[in-house]
Specification:
With 397 residues, this protein is α/β, with parallel strands linked by helices. Helices cover 44% and strands 14% of the residues.
């Protein structure tokens, strides 16, 4: 199956994956994160782990357990690390530490390489025994963290052999470990990103009440303030004064994101007055449906206020869509302003480019073609896989 990637990356690139894998094949590798489904980290691991296995690597994936209290704490860490503000007490740190310990029965710590994703399981390192290698893979924007939370986390992160961030500006000058810059990636062969027929697309759109006759603007995102769902609705409403549109905001729940329901209810309140707004909460693994929404859209938006990378941007670009993206974090790596889409700083900006793109089919076509090629060269899973293998090799030298 891994051979199927050759048509995107060429024979040479594929061969190099096997050659690098050969050099680390004796190592056992464990990925650890905080959810099996929902959100970008699970999205990548669901594809990355089988691919590593196909290369002959000894790799496993485990998910930490936690109760509502723990995930409320980690969600508030997540928000305050990205926003620079917070309301955190000693009790939060105590709950975090308690669950690291409770997870000792779930997570074996004796793999040669421990690949720990995001802040939720980062504290497991304090139970490290022996000389195995620990890598902290950070998926969020930590360029301007709320100091009390970062200072707490930093104690753990500093113990790692290396960290991985998605964008250079997330690099920290207050930790003394190697920091690798590895942007995330999408899988061109997954159900979510493979080419689908016009019939499938239309069938799914009609199932969700999306009309064929009006341009469709879509944002696919969890219900999270960082994704600015209310800003998306505002942008759509401003644009709709000039062009007749429909909006789909499609999200799903994630077990490690307890804030989703509150945000969802706010979004519903804001959109009640317009029957062309479709707010959908889809079950996890609705990959074909997400694919159809992205493929059927006239314009895709990712109006985030904070974003580690934003897989949804590359997913849409891979489907030849220009993306209107928030000018933050990992989005500018993908959206080259005026070439693969537009970067915006406000709902007004997003509305302006929505009108422009909706009215200009030729521009959409050119930018969409650029967008797909930019993803092919930079953000396919085989590239991230190679970078991970190189990092594993590095920490074991
Ligand atoms: N998704 C669904 N169904 C939905 C909504 C989202 O399948 O209803 C998918 C979406 O297609 C994408 C993933 O979930 O594949 C979401 O990933 P992303 O857009 O990257 O956002 P996060 O869930 O916030 O992921 C975190 C970071 C993000 C980074 C990612 C990988 O916030 O910035 O790109 O981790 O590093």
């Amino acid at each position: 199956m891994i051979e199927k990637y050759e048509k995107f990356i060429g024979e040479h690139e594929l061969d190099s994956l096997f050659k690098i894998a050969e050099r680390i094949k004796d190592l056992s590798i464990l990925h650890v994160n905080s959810t099996k489904a929902g959100g970008g980290v699970a999205e990548i691991l669901n594809r990355m782990v089988p691919l590593m296995k196909e290369l002959g690597l000894n790799v496993d994936w485990r998910v930490i357990k936690g109760d509502n209290e723990f995930f409320n704490v980690t969600k508030s860490f997540h928000n305050s690390l990205q926003n620079g503000i917070g309301n955190i007490t000693e009790e939060h740190f105590r709950i975090y530490d308690k669950w690291q310990e409770l997870n000792l029965s779930e997570i074996p710590l004796d793999y040669d390489v421990m690949f720990i994703h995001d802040p939720q399981p980062a504290g497991l390192i304090k139970f490290k025994k022996g000389n195995n290698r620990w890598i902290w893979r950070c998926h969020i924007d930590i360029s301007n963290p709320y100091p009390p939370v970062w200072d707490f986390l930093k104690k753990y992160v500093s113990e790692y052999n290396a960290s991985i961030i998605s964008v250079p500006s997330f690099g920290r000058d207050d930790i003394d470990i190697p920091q690798f810059i590895i942007p995330p990636s999408i899988d061109p062969l997954s159900e979510k990103n493979k080419h689908i027929s016009e019939t499938t697309k239309l069938r799914i759109m009609s199932k969700f009440g999306i009309s064929e006759d009006k341009p469709l603007v879509t944002q696919i995102s969890r219900f999270d303030y960082a994704k600015d769902p209310l800003g998306v609705i505002k942008a759509y409403k401003l644009a709709k004064r000039h062009v007749d549109l429909q909006l789909a905001y499609v999200g799903s729940p994630a077990t490690d994101d307890p804030e989703g329901e509150k945000v969802y209810n706010e979004v519903i309140r804001e959109s009640r007055d317009d029957k062309d707004i479709h707010i959908l909460m889809l079950p996890p693994y609705s990959d074909l449906e997400i694919n159809a929404f992205q493929s059927a859209s006239t314009v895709v938006m990712q109006k985030s206020i904070k974003e580690g990378f934003g897989l949804t941007v590359s997913e849409a670009m891979w489907k030849n869509k220009p993306v209107i993206g928030g000018n933050t974090g990992g989005i500018p790596l993908q959206v080259i302003n005026g070439v693969t889409g537009f970067l915006v700083n406000s709902p007004q900006g997003a509305a302006h480019y929505t009108i422009y793109l909706t009215r200009n089919a030729k521009v959409r076509h050119t930018m969409g073609t650029n967008a797909r090629e930019h993803v092919r060269r930079n953000f396919l899973i085989t590239r991230e896989l190679r970078d991970y293998l190189m990092t594993i090799m590095y920490v074991n030298e």
